[in-house]
Structures are given as structure tokens and as C-alpha cells.
Amino acid sequence: MSTKTHTHGLESSGIQLDPALPICQSDLPLDWYQKEFKPYAEEYLALPDRKPKTVLDWLDGYVRPAQAHFGDQLLLVAHFYMGGEIVKLVERYGGAVADSYQLALAATRHPEAKVIVESAVHFMAEAIAILAGEDQAVWITNPKAGCTMEMLAKDYMVLPVAEQMIERYGEKLCVIAYMNTSGRLKALAGRTGGAVCTSSNAAKVVQWALKQGKKVFFVPDQHLGRNTAAQVGLSQERVVALRDPQVLRGGFRFDDSAAVGGLRALDNAQMILWGSFCGVHTIFEPRHVRYWQERGYRVLVHPESRLEVVEAANGFGSTNYLWDAVAKAAPGSRLAIGTEGHFVRNAREQGRLRGVEVVHLADIPDPSFQSSGCGCATMSRNDPPHLAGMLDLLRRGTPPDANRVLAGDSVDERSGARERLDGAERALLVAQARASLERMIEITEATGG
Q: Is the per-residue pLDDT at 380 higher than 80?
């Protein structure tokens, strides 16, 4: 079979498929697939096993013809967090596996790519679409792939509160929107003269805003916000989190009930945090860190973890930071990594190839801990049938419109129902959201990436 891939000059992450191990994607029930994808799912479910040769022989029948049809105009992308070895499959076919910052730049860095197929979450695909050219189309293999943190910071929850804050603080308020937000909140950041950030550049972006004397409204992750504040030397007394968005699944009044300490604390704050969080990263506790450190492991965590966990760890950083730590660790090193479970499993396999031991921070063989490292279920809704189906349908010229991603799209992760802006609304959103993304890029590139 042909082994030609279309790499677009992208650097390999080093993720490899082990032919001796089965592909561990948990098979999704057939009724989870869109009707257009069910034939591919039925074929996949009928395969005799999940070993790489079996799955790849089947995938080749769909992926290779699509690559031959589109040539270098086709670009496949995935995030490090995707489960079930989908990242390995995407890279095996010459795609890009990267963190959210690099993925956001996929279209602008590869203008030759006219058909971009993303096996990740909707907000990442939307970020690509915001920066894409008019001749570039972005498609997502499963529009229901989402993020629990982003689900607690929908525009209908955040915008009513933000408007009250803008009325109270005026031009002094600057919104910093984490990449894990919809385009509608990225547009809010642009409208207030703010910027987008990722976990790799949050400190640079927040520092930039504070140097301008701005009052930062950080959306959506309260823990990344608090860790970033500590990183830039901001007193925690000047950092205030708004009430838990789970209490009211909609906007609430920005008054004395909005946060501990009321309006006095909010007025005095330099950073106001939306109260969202990542369910995967908040399972970690300082005692997890101590357990592995006492056994000679170096503990590294993602900054979506709680502040006390980050402070106890030996290091913290983005998925790119964590992956590089494994790739550069000396043989014989022992690392305990606190982040999403699929990522750690891939890191463990890569570490094994280099004589580096990698464990998940929460996977402790002591029943008193009652914890285990889990993968993000909402992020991991992409699997081989979605990839095969999306590429085959694109090649045939019959891709489902539900999988096309345009800036401003709002998708319900449960039902798949989509709300799409009209042309004028989308144009305004793109202008504002693009401004916030380009500001992030400018800040990041100016300080050495």
C-alpha cells in the first residue's frame, strides 16, 4: 500500500502506533453517529479486532483516496488530548498533532490547505475558521466533541454578566478569553481590547494587559486564571472568582451576590475570574503530588489544576510543555504527569521507547486515594469511523453541513443542534474575534513564542 503522506512541513510530535497493542478507542454506540456516518461505523464495528493492521487497512480504503483526490489542499489536524489513538492515526496520515495555539494557526500557516479536517473539539475548529482565508473550509469529524469547561461558559451565561461589568468599569475592563471558549467570547475579548490566550502563553497575555493598567476579566477557567495571576506576581487578594456557573445556567446579576466579598472585592480586584473549571484537572490534590515525589518521581502538571497542586508540583505547563518534558527526559527518568488521561497514556508509550517511566498523577495503587486518571469524555468523541466518513464524504462532494465549522456557530454537545449567525453577524464576530486572536499572536511572537 502507499505510504505517502501530506505533511505541509509540519514537525512530527513523535507519536507512534505500537503494532502489538490494540487501538483502545472505546467503540461508540451506533446511535451516536450522524446518519451519514452510520455506514462507516457499521463497517468499523464489524472488524474482527482493533489491532493497528486491521484498523489501518480499513482506514486506508477511505483516507488514501481522499489524499490522492485533494493532494496538498487537504490538511488533517488533531489535539494532543484526543483519545483512542486518533492522534496517532492523524499523524500516521501526515496530519498535525499539536496544542491549541499551534492548531489555531493551522490555516494561516498553511494557505495551500483548502480543506482542513479537524479531529478535536469544536472551539478549536472554530478558532481555525476565524483565522482562515475565504478559500479555506474547516470541517470537524464530530461536531458534538466539546469541553466541559467551555460548557460552563456559554455565551448566554457569560455575556449578560460581562455587559454589566463593562457598564460598571468601562474601558478599564479587558477580557482575556482562554482558547477553550467559543468564537462569541473571543469576540467579546476583541471588543474590549483584550486577547485570547492558551495555557502556554497566558502569563504573557495577562502581563501585557496588566501593564496597560487594565482590569482583567479572565474567562473561563478560574484555576488557569489563578495560577497565571500567581505566575505574574499578582497578589491573590486582588484575584476574585465569580460564583459557580453551575448554580445558574444563565446570566446572573453583577452585585454583592456575584462573588465572595461582594462588589467591594470585585471593585478592588485586578483580575476577575469566571467560575468555570475542568473536571479532569480538578481531581488532583497536593497529596497526589507528595505520593509520587516521595517515591522519586518528578511531578509535572497542567495549569488547569488547582493552585495548591501547581505550587506543590516540580513543574507546570501546557500540553506542549508536558510532551517536551517526556521527549527530552534522560533515560531512567521517572515522571508523574497530571493532565488528561489519553495524553498521559500516549506519553507513557513514548517514554517507554526511550527508557523513561511515565505515570498518571491520579493513578495511585492505594485504595485510600480512590482516584484514577481519566480521559475527557466530551473531547474524545472522534474515532476512526468519524475520520473515515468525513474524508470519504468530502471526496464524494457530499459532506454533511452539520460538520462544516463557521465562526460564530454554537453547537449543543448533547443534541448536535446548531445555531448559525447570519452573514452580517458573522462578519462582525470574525472581525472582533480575529482581533483578539491576532493580538495573542502578536504578544506571543514578540516575546519569543
A: no
CATH annotation of 30-146+380-416: 3.40.50.10800
* Burial state string for 218-240 with b = 16 or more CB within 10 A and e = fewer than 16: bbbbbbbbbbbbbbbebeeeebb
Is the overall model pTM greater than 0.85, yes or no? Answer: yes
* Mean pLDDT within 300-314: 97
**Taking 80 as the threshold, does the pLDDT of residue 97 lie above it?**
no
> Is domain 281-360 classified as CATH 3.90.550.10?
no
Location of C-alpha cell 475592563: 173
Topology annotation, domain 150-278+434-446: Rossmann fold (3.40.50)
The reply to whether 281-360 shares the fold of 150-278+434-446 is yes
Q: Where are the domains of the chain?
A: 30-146+380-416, 150-278+434-446, 281-360
pLDDT at 431 over 50: yes
